[in-house]
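Internal tracking record. Fields below are filled automatically when a chain is submitted to the structure queue. Please do not edit lines marked as system-generated. If the sequence contains nonstandard residues, flag them in the REMARKS field before resubmitting.
Queue: standard
Priority: normal
Entity type: single polypeptide chain
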Amino acid sequence: MNRLDITKRTQIVSALVEGVGINAISRMFGVSKNTILKLLADVGRACVEYQDRVMRNLNCTRLEADEIWQFCYAKEKNVPSAKRGEFGYGDVWTWAAIDADTKLIPSFLVAKRDVGSATAFIQDLAGRLANRVQLTTDGHRPYLTAVADGFGDSIDYTMLVKMYGSDPEGEKRYSPSICIGCKKTVISGDPDLAKASTSYVERQNLTMRMHMRRFTRLTNGHSKKIENHIYAVALHFMYYNFGKVHMTLRVTPAMAAGIADHVWEFEEIVALADSN
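SYSTEM-GENERATED OUTPUT FOLLOWS
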């Protein structure tokens, strides 16, 4: 069976993490879509396993968590009746936590937006930390149960709810409403409300939409299979954590967090699949 050389595989992976679509990559490099998706699966699976292994005993102190929406296969209203309610068809959410100091993403989960998914996400996050942290989330109610189950009393937890007003210039379909204030509520522990924020994780949501074609709005670049969606998310966070130099840090988040000693090249990310 023919296999792409390391140079071509590296070029494809670099294009994937810069938001280029599968069809465009196929045209650019003269490689079939199936070959690209096979490479994405191999590298994405390796990225999941590597990050799961190294993201342990992290010395984070200030975390933010949020969920970002996308759909898979079809929008929720267009999902065939035989597939309704089945995960991977319709609404899909990516849960992510970010360390406000190092900008590291220690935990992420592609799942539904329910209590069970929130619990699984928060328990995974709690299991990766070496010390007590301050956590801020939005007002999504499943966090209340999930954080209590995952951390117990060993956390300083704040919910931040933003309040929006109408645009005086008139409604614009794709323009966000104006934020007119926010309400911070202490849920447990003794958090520093001055440092309670969701700004970093919301900015990470924008980074995800910019670096993954599957998250681009108003296009047909959405994921058709949930497995490929999960692999693309894992590859994105691998590159973001280990290969992308943060402008304010001047190092990668993984280097700032002390779990990497250099900026990863794309060849190293691709090579993860060869070592599995």
